[in-house]
Amino acid sequence: MTAPVFLIDSLADVRAGGTLSLDGPEGRHAVSVRRLRTGEEVVLTDGRGTGAHGTVAAVEGKDRLTVAVTALRTEDPPQPTITVVQALPKGDRGELAVETMTETGVDAIVPWPAARCVTQWKGERAAKALGKWRATAREAGKQSRRLTFPQVADPLTTKQVAALLADADFAAVLHEEGSSPLATAELPAQGSIVLVVGPEGGVSPEELATFAEAGARPYRLGTTVLRTSTAGTAATALLLGRTGRWS
């Protein structure tokens, strides 16, 4: 198995040959849950593309360990980037969507309260739900051994989503009635790809028109209809393969 990944605030002053301490909740998870011991390999990442690879040099108590750093590695920013605008699913299916998209390799996730969403984020519920999405992205990033975790943005209105689509190098709305398959769309080698995943009730005609004005065409994934919590993951996997990021 590859070495487990833990999140650390900063790696700014870390160098190969030095040591690094991991404490707090991450240290507790490493020592008390994962039960790491001296000599085992670990990776500490800032979640922004840099990782310190090393071995456990010492374990202290139940929530602290020292890592002997053997190498510091930095990932190049992926090209093209993939952003999924995710309509708010019901219940905990939003966290499921974030988890699987993160594990697959999405670069950014934008919550979108579409017109036909049953779930709507308001007041304290909005802050709590957004916090859950961001925590899910962090945990899934570690689980999938990523050094760059996806950014989970603040929720955007339909008008704001349209502006995001207008700035993209390729913009698409996943739609079961799309005349073109996403599998044959002409994709950019560089820049940004933005996909819109609608709610269970579908993207409304008014939203489709707004997104079309911004340059986003409707595309279908295949002959089956996917739920909103799985469509983004399937589309991300397809694009990662087609753009060469999974080569």
Describe the overall structure.
The structure is a single chain. This protein has six helices and twelve strands. The strands form two sheets. A seven-stranded parallel sheet has the order 8-7-6-11-9-12-10, with helices on both faces. α2 runs parallel beside α3 (123-143), α2 packs parallel to α6 (228-242) and α4 (158-166) runs parallel beside α5 (205-213). The protein has two domains: 5-74, Ribosomal Protein L25, Chain P; 81-243, Alpha/beta knot (3-Layer(aba) Sandwich). The chain is α/β, with parallel strands linked by helices and 247 residues long. The chain is elongated and about 60 Å long. The model has no long low-confidence stretch (mean pLDDT 95). It has helices spanning 24-33, 93-104, 123-143, 158-166, 205-213, 228-242; strands spanning 5-7, 19-22, 41-45, 50-60, 64-74, 81-87, 108-112, 151-152, 170-174, 180-181, 192-197, 217-220. The longest helix is centred in the middle third of the chain and has 21 residues, at 123-143.
